[in-house]
Write a structure and sequence with these properties.
This protein has eleven helices and nine strands. It is α/β, with parallel strands linked by helices. The longest helix is centred in the middle third of the chain and has 23 residues. The chain is globular and about 55 Å long.
Length: 300
Amino acid sequence: MTSRKSELTLCNILGQAAGAFGLGELHRLWDSAALATRMCSCGEIVLNCPVWRRVLRACYGSADTDALRPTFAAIERHRDGCTRVRHMLPIPRAFAPSLDQHLRAYRQALEAIYASIGAVTGCQVAVDASKLPAYARVLLGCRLDVRVLFLVRDARATAYSWRRRKRTSVRGRTFTTAQYSWAASAKEWLITNWAAERLARALPPDRLLRVRYEDLMQQPQPALQRIARWAGLAEDSLPFIAPDQVRLSTAHLIAGNQNRFRTGEVALRPDDEWSAAMPLRAKRWVTLLTWPLLRRYGYL
C-alpha cells in the first residue's frame, strides 16, 4: 500500500514508454455498479473511450452497457471470490470449495482482456496499477509474462496521505478522495504489505522488484530507468524532460485516483509533509501498529 498518487503516477510514466500501454487499476474494470459511469483518464466514459471501446469490442463483441452487464457481473463475482487477502491464506480447499472455480474463470477473463489490449494497442508491455497482492497472485497463474513491482512507502507517510481529502473536476464531474483514520490506514498498510511479502517469497528474483517510494522520489530518473530495464522497456523512451520532471501525454487509465488525469509537465519530488505536519500521537500510534515491517523496509 502506497500513497494515493505514487502507483498511478508510476503507471502513467511507464505506460508512456515506447511499446508500453498504461492501464490504471485494471481489476476495477468489471465493477458492474460503475459500468456506465467509469471515466477513462482521457476524459471519456470508458465505454466511449476510443481505445477501450475497441478493446471491449474485441474481447466481448460489444461495448454497450446492456450487452456487457451480465458478463461483467459474472467476472466481478469470480474476481471477488479469489482476490481478497484471505484467499492467500493456506486454507484447505474443503473450506473454500468454490475458490478453484473462481480462479479458473477469472484467469480466463484476464487472459482474454490482456490479449485484446495487446491486439488493439500493439503494446508489448501493459502496465497494471492494481495494488492487490491476491490479484497479482491470480495474474501469476495466467498464461502471461507477469512481473511484479512492489512499491512500498513509510506507513506513517501513507497514513497521513490517506487523511488528506482532494477534489478534482473533470468534464463537470467532481472526484473526491476517501479519508481513513490513522488506525484504519495502519491496519490496511500492514495487511497489504504482509500479503505482498507472502507473494514475494514465492516469486523468482527476476519476477519481483521492490522499490521504496522515498528512494524513487530522491532520484526519479535513474530509479525509473532501472524499473524500465527490468520491465523490458527502452529507458531512453521515458517522458523525462529533466532528472526530476516528466511531460505526460493524455493516457487511458481506467481506474484509480484523480492523479491519472494529470497531463503536461509534472515534477517528481518527495512528499515529506507528513514528517512535520502529522501529529506526534498519530505517528506513535501508526509506528506501534506497523513497526515489524517498518523495520524490515528500513524506516526504523
